[in-house]
Specification:
Blueprint: H1 6-10, H2 12-15, E1 20-24, H3 29-42, E2 47-52, H4 54-61, H5 64-67, E3 71-74, H6 79-98
Parallel strand pairs: 1-2, 2-3
Length: about 110
């Protein structure tokens, strides 16, 4: 796991291979698009989750396909929404690695307790 902030954080994509980028964007959808486009220039295949205000996410949702956004998280981030997203990402990564979806029902994304 890597953490970074702003464009300096985005530049970490040049030095590391990652599976998922959770990108916080400003309220201004034009600047948000510039950041997302910049991410795509550096790393066109990384799964991208965009954390945005409801209004910004609504504006960007029309371009979700072009920007190749895996998902949006609305600010403020609720714990249930966050962990549901992590489960979906884990399933997607597992499916990509093995060609199958993990089994185990609704708790398939849960971490082992022992």
């Amino acid at each position: 796991m890597l953490t970074g902030e702003g464009y300096a954080g985005i530049h970490l994509l040049r030095q590391h291979t990652i599976d998922l980028l959770i990108l916080g964007v400003p309220r201004n959808s034009a600047e948000a698009k510039r950041r997302i486009d910049y991410v795509r220039e550096i790393s066109p295949t990384v799964d991208l989750v965009v954390v945005a205000t409801d209004s910004c996410a609504k504006e960007l949702s029309g371009e979700k396909g072009r920007l190749d956004i895996f998902s949006f998280l609305a600010r403020p981030i609720g714990a249930m929404d966050f962990f549901r997203l992590i489960r979906r990402v884990r399933e997607r990564l597992h499916e990509g690695a093995t060609g199958t979806v993990p089994t185990g029902g609704a708790r398939s994304g849960a971490m082992p307790t022992s």
